[in-house]
From TrEMBL:
Superkingdom of the source species: Bacteria
Pfam families (UniProt xref): AAA_5, CobS_N
Record-annotated ATPase dynein-related AAA domain positions: 64-189
All copies of domain Cobaltochelatase subunit CobS N-terminal, residue ranges: 7-37
Protein's name according to its UniProt entry: Cobaltochelatase subunit CobS
Coiled coil: none
C-alpha cells in the first residue's frame, strides 16, 4: 500500500465472518496491507460489545474511547480490529512528556543542496489527518491538559486543523479514524491506582461519540489466552494449574473492588506468572516474583490467603505443580 491521500477502502467485510459476532453489519476494509497495519494476533479474544463499538468508529467515523482497568487489552483491541481490516494504525502514547510541538510540528534545521535551511516538520497529528489511518491516543488521561487542547478541534464533526506556523488549514482525510484509551475517563486518579492520570476538560470528553467499557474476560476465556501464550501449559496438568492461577487473579480483582487491596492482577500479570512458571518450574516462586513482591507488605498476608484458597498450599512452600 502506498502512502497517499488517495487511498480508500476497497471492499466490505462481514462482521460475522471476520469477528465471529452475530451481526449482519459489513465494515469497509483495505485489500492490501502497508507498514502501518498491525500484525494479526491469531489468539486474541474479542469482546463483542467493545468490538462493535470500535467497528462503528471505522464504519461511521465515530470518535471511540475505550475505558477500562490496566491489562484488559484496550489498545490491543483497537489494533486487532484494524489488523483484520488492513487499516493503517498509529498508536500515540500520551505521557507527561508529550508536548504541543510533538503533536503539531516544529521548525527544524535541515540540509538542502549543501546549505542549512529552516523548514517546518509536521507532527503526528497533521501527518495522520492527511491519511487514511486509525490514530489511537493511548493513555488519553495521562496527557497534559494544556496539550490536550491541541486535539480538541479535530474531535469535532468537520475536524479541521489550523497550522498557525504555516497559515494552513488541514481538512481531515475522509477515512481518518480517531480512537482513545483511558483508565479513568478523565476523572483523575480517584482510587490511587493510576498516578499521573489527569482530570480532563469535560467539554473535550463530550466530543467522544462512543465510550466503551472493556472488562476482564470470563475465567475460561482468560485460561485459553494464557495457554495460547504459554503452549507448554496447554495440557491437562497445565489447565489445572492455570485455572487456579486465574482464580487467584479473580480474587485480587474482587479484593481491589472491595477496597481490601490497592493493586490487582491483570491478565497480563497472569501471563507473566505462567511464563515465569516455565522458567522456575515452581508456581509459588513464580507468583512471588510476578505479583507478590509488587504488593504492599501489609497486604501480602491477604494475597497469601488468596493463593492458599486456590492452590491449597501455603505461599511459603515450594511445590512442583507444573507439568514437566
Amino acid at each position: 500500500m502506498t502512502d497517499t491521500a488517495d487511498l480508500r477502502p476497497d471492499r466490505l467485510l462481514s462482521v460475522r465472518d471476520t469477528f465471529g459476532i452475530d451481526s449482519d453489519l459489513q465494515v469497509p476494509a483495505f485489500s492490501e496491507r502497508d507498514a502501518h497495519v498491525p500484525g494479526i494476533d491469531s489468539v486474541y479474544r474479542f469482546q463483542s460489545d467493545v468490538t462493535l463499538a470500535i467497528l462503528a468508529g471505522f464504519m461511521r467515523d465515530r470518535r471511540v474511547m475505550v475505558q477500562g482497568l490496566h491489562g484488559t487489552g484496550k489498545s490491543t483491541h483497537i489494533e486487532q480490529v484494524a489488523a483484520r481490516l488492513n487499516w493503517p494504525c498509529v498508536r500515540l502514547n500520551l505521557d507527561g512528556h508529550i508536548s504541543r510541538p510533538d503533536l503539531v510540528g516544529k521548525d527544524a534545521v535541515v540540509l538542502r543542496g549543501g546549505q542549512q535551511v529552516t523548514e517546518f516538520q509536521e507532527g503526528i497529528v497533521p501527518w495522520a489527518l492527511q491519511r487514511p489511518v486509525a490514530l489511537i491516543f493511548d493513555e488519553y488521561d495521562a496527557g497534559r491538559p494544556d496539550v490536550m487542547f491541541v486535539i480538541q478541534r479535530i474531535l469535532e464533526r468537520d475536524g479541521q486543523f489550523t497550522l498557525m506556523d504555516q497559515n494552513r488549514v488541514l481538512r481531515p482525510h475522509p477515512f481518518l479514524r480517531l480512537f482513545a484509551t483511558a483508565n479513568t475517563v478523565g476523572l483523575g486518579n480517584l482510587n490511587g491506582l493510576y498516578h499521573g492520570a489527569q482530570r480532563l476538560n469535560h467539554a473535550q470528553i463530550d466530543r467522544w461519540n462512543i465510550v466503551a467499557s472493556l472488562d476482564y474476560l470470563p475465567p475460561e476465556e482468560e485460561l485459553a489466552i494464557v495457554q495460547a501464550r504459554v503452549p507448554s501449559l496447554a495440557n491437562d496438568a497445565g489447565t489445572v494449574l492455570i485455572r487456579a492461577m486465574v482464580a487467584v487473579a479473580d480474587l485480587t480483582r474482587k479484593g481491589f473492588a472491595a477496597g481490601d487491596l490497592s493493586t490487582l492482577m491483570s491478565p497480563r500479570t497472569v501471563i507473566t506468572w505462567a511464563e515465569n512458571v516455565e522458567i522456575f518450574k515452581d508456581p509459588t516462586q513464580a507468583f512471588r516474583l510476578s505479583f507478590v513482591n509488587k504488593c504492599d507488605e501489609a497486604e501480602r498476608p491477604l494475597v497469601a490467603e488468596y493463593f492458599q484458597r486456590c492452590f491449597d498450599l501455603e505461599l511459603k512452600e515450594s511445590h512442583q505443580l507444573c507439568p514437566p
